[in-house]
Design goal:
about 170 residues, mainly alpha, 8 helices, about 85% helix
């Protein structure tokens, strides 16, 4: 999803000079969000952090999709908010998969999960500019919101809590 934000941010500013400046600004909230998520992961728990990450980033993308013609400060605020809420996903990617799988298959399962996340990132990087050109910012952000909200639904339905459990205990849930 970070590719969505960076690409849409650049696309929106492509008519103005120095579109790279928008990408750099995007990284500051993302860095801050990773630091916040690192401190919150053991207090909130993995499941709670995952659900909040999907819910708030999905809501932010939904607002961007519903109001693509908003004033630039509002768009920037929404992109920064999205960047802040995706930090939980960045941190969870390092911790959560290791706790979900039994030792016998952990390496393969974590490798597969990591690979699939890279495929998703590559697809997003490739498809977002195409979607922006064909459908515009609003529908593209609504599509991204749909993906995030689908992740929310899956997480609410099936994501186990592993906080406070040993690796063996969490792999059995």
């Amino acid at each position: 999803m970070s590719a969505v934000v960076a690409t849409a941010s650049c696309h929106r500013r492509s008519r103005r000079s120095n579109s790279e400046h928008g990408i750099r600004r995007h990284h500051y909230p993302a860095l801050a969000s990773c630091i916040i998520a690192l401190t919150a992961i053991n207090k909130l728990g993995r499941r709670t952090l995952l659900i909040h990450t999907f819910a708030w980033s999905g809501l932010t993308l939904l607002l961007l999709g519903l109001f693509p013609g908003s004033p630039v400060p509002v768009i920037r605020c929404l992109f920064a908010t999205y960047a802040i809420f995706t930090g939980g996903a960045q941190v969870l990617q390092l911790v959560y998969p290791n706790e979900l799988f039994p030792t016998e298959i952990r390496g393969s399962a974590v490798g597969l999960a990591s690979s699939l996340s890279r495929v998703g990132g590559a697809l997003g990087t490739y498809l977002v500019p195409i979607a922006l050109d064909r459908w515009g910012v609003g529908p593209t952000m609504l599509g991204a919101a749909t993906v995030a909200l689908a992740g929310l639904a899956v997480s609410v339905a099936w994501a186990p809590e592993t906080r406070g459990k040993s690796m063996a205990e969490s792999a059995r849930t």
